[in-house]
Amino acid sequence: MKFIETRGNDGHHPEHASFSEAILAPIASFGGLYSPESLPRLDEDFFIDHLGSSYKTLARAVLMKFEIDIPAEIIDQALALYDGFDDPSNPVPVVRVYDDLYVSELYHGPTRAFKDMALQPFGIVLSAIAQSRHENYLILAATSGDTGPAALETFKNKANVKVACMYPVGGTSDVQRLQMVTEDAGNLKVIGVNGDFDDTQNALKHLLASDSFKETLHQKDIRVSAANSVNFGRIIFQIIYHLHSYLELVRQQAISMGERVYLDVPSGNFGNALGGYYAMKMGLPVEKILIASNRNNILTQFIRTGIYNLRSVDLIQTTSPAMDILKSSNIERILFDLFGAQRTKALMRQLDAEKCYQLASTELEQIQAIFAADFCQDEKGKAYIKETFERGYLMDPHTATCFEAYRNCREKPLKTIVYSTAEWTKFSPVIANALTGEEDAHDIDALQSIAHSAGISIPPMISALFEKEIAQKTVIDKEAIEDEILAFL
Ligand SMILES: *Cc1c(COP(=O)(O)O)cnc(C)c1O
Question: What's the 269 CA to ligand 1 centre distance in angstroms?
Fold first, then answer.
């Protein structure tokens, strides 16, 4: 399987990259990304054959179809990390909430958010490639709260890899911050940045593109990679759970094999939805992918009008902060897949220069044949949390945004898979507020109050955070990031 560039080739970057090359150096010519040249095709026999497969067996079969240049024993080691999820025999439970709405719970890993689904195995794969090449890597991660903890957790004490992780100060929950600042390992550095997530992400993109920074790293013989969802090494693991969730619906006799479903995805950088898109192209019977957003509804506007408009929009802080994103990186891979490199390059250039682009009407039709979109205000999200809780199901505010898309975007009465991307423990103050009206609770108080009213216990990895020592104390302005990271190295 070869990877090609979303903005064409500049004569310097490899025009075709292997999977490992695309993982190690994810930024392609003209600031583009690597995308698969073609996708393996899964026919109905594949789905029938895997009806009885465990998650790991299905995952191995899908990865084999991609023919990636990773030794089988490394793939097995990577997939073995799913054994550390709550239920090793079923790391991704799919739960019926309404007759036609099933929730696929992607948060049963160590950091209680769906980022573990991809980052846990990705950590093994990247460290193994680095070791086999005798190379050292610096992973730069910008996080709005969930990538950071998951990246730190997966690379902690791994050979040949260091991680510098930046988060927006005040832009994460207590639990998310504690998950990062209590991580104590010599190869990890956590940096609080004064600003919002887009500032943090832009600072990271700036660093990745900076020649002087690269030059210094070159002298120290350290290469840079990224663990953000632009890295295809993450995307590949995000295709699998869409296939698994569908098979779960068949196993639970909610659908018969071949019946179409809606995938309903709470979206930010579009990694999760892109995994669904690839699964659909590979043969998963999907009617449409519903893109759920919060009030930062740039994706809703884009899918409805074909206009991606960053002009005079400000980032709004919402109760689903992992979706507080304006520049959604993986949209580029959709544009590339549908319209080719030349067009993608032109559109992305236009977005940089004019902060806006508009698709032609035929292009928009192609987008709308695959996607529909809606956004959910915080207050409505809280109402959904309360309503579903009263029916016996507890969910987080990101998951709640999907209920608006579920209500408004479906044109057919087909079963819908909502993806739950975080456990209630990560956003407990919002949930406590939704359930009882209590305001501004600290995480620890909200956790206890929800656990009490739901009759459940706080998972041990969450309660332990409040006892741990703070190991990472750096908080700086974005201008100081480069020096801080060089000092760490
Ligand atoms: C990262 C994240 C999202 C957004 O996922 P994308 O793949 O970036 O679209 C949604 N919810 C939660 C809880 C997340 O951590």
Answer: 7
**Ligand 1 pocket, residue 115 CB under 6 Å:** yes
Domain assignment of residue 181, yes or no = no
Q: Establish whether residue 149 lines the binding site of ligand 1, counting it when its CB lies within 6 angstroms of any ligand atom.
A: no
Q: What is the mean pLDDT of the chain?
A: 94
pLDDT tens digit sequence for 178-204: 999 999 999 999 999 998 887 888 888
For ligand 1, the distance from its centroid to the CA atom of residue 409, given in whole angstroms, is: 20
Q: How far is the CA of 212 from the centre of ligand 1 (A)?
A: 32
Write the residue with the smallest CA distance to atom 2 of ligand 1: 322
Per-residue DSSP letter, 92: S
Quick one: pLDDT band at residue 165, thresholds 50, 70, 90? very high
- Quote the number of domains for the chain: 1
* CA 270 to ligand 1: nearest atom: 9
Instruction: Give a yes or no: residue 258 inside a domain.
Output: yes
pLDDT digits (tens, 9 = 90+) for 60-91: 999 999 999 999 999 999 999 999 999 999 99
Q: Which atom of ligand 1 is nearest to the CA of 107?
A: 13
Q: Is 323 in the pocket of ligand 1 (CB under 6 A)?
A: yes
**Does the C-beta of 271 come closer than 6 Å to ligand 1?**
yes
Would 161 be classed as within a structural domain?
A: no
Measured distance CA(354)–CA(398) in Å, rounded = 30
Residue 332 φ/ψ region, left for φ over 0, alpha for ψ in the -120 to 50 degree band, beta for the rest: alpha
Range of the domain at 357: 89-111+233-458
Q: With H, G, I as helix, E, B as strand and everything else as coil, classify residue 319.
A: coil
Which of 104, 106, 114, 332 is the pocket-test mutation for ligand 1 (most atoms within 8 Å of CB)? 114
CATH code of the domain containing 358: 3.40.50.1100
CB neighbours of 71 closer than 8 A, spacing ≥ 6?
Answer: 128
Q: Is residue 60 part of a domain?
A: no
With a 6 Å cutoff on the Cβ, whether 421 touches ligand 1 is yes
pLDDT > 90? residue 212: no
* 3-state DSSP assignment of residue 28: coil
CB atoms within 10 A of CB 360: 11
Specify the ligand 1 atom closest to the Cα of 274: 7
Return d(Cα 267, Cα 282) in angstroms, integer.
Answer: 21
* 144 in Cβ contact with 320 (< 8 Å): no
Q: What is the pLDDT of residues 369-397, one digit of tens each?
A: 999 999 999 999 999 999 999 999 999 99
Angle between helical axes of 232-251 and 115-132 (0-180°, round to 10): 140
pLDDT digits (tens, 9 = 90+) for 239-251: 999 999 999 999 9
| Overall pTM > 0.90 | yes
- Per-residue pLDDT of 285-327, as tens digits, reads 999 999 999 999 999 999 999 999 999 899 898 999 889 889 9
* Distance (Å) from CA 94 to ligand 1 centroid: 18
